[in-house]
Design brief:
Length: about 100
């Protein structure tokens, strides 16, 4: 966006300088610029219609490839529950 604003500002500056020196601008007439604007807007219409007719499957693809796999690989699983008889008692010492 910054290059566009800079381009517009410099164009305005050159226009003011041309007006001060009463020099006719070598730029194309306004009707030609309106035609160029029409061309730029026309280039945007087919992609817009395509996106309305057949939406992109980017969201689904992104979900399957980026969200489902975990960042750190497979998450650890819980150990099966042990009964009290199977759990070793640390407090009993042999000795």
């Amino acid at each position: 966006m910054k290059p566009y604003v800079l381009s517009l500002a410099l164009g305005l500056l050159v226009g003011v300088i041309y007006a001060l020196f009463q020099v006719r601008s070598p730029a194309p007439p306004v009707i030609a610029l309106v035609g160029l604007l029409g061309i730029l807007l026309g280039e945007q219409i087919p992609p817009l219609i395509k996106s309305w007719v057949k939406p992109d499957a980017v969201a689904t693809s992104w979900l399957n490839h980026q969200v489902k796999p975990h960042v750190f690989g497979e998450l650890p699983k819980c150990l099966p529950a042990q009964t009290a008889a199977e759990t070793p008692n640390k407090e009993t010492r042999h000795g």
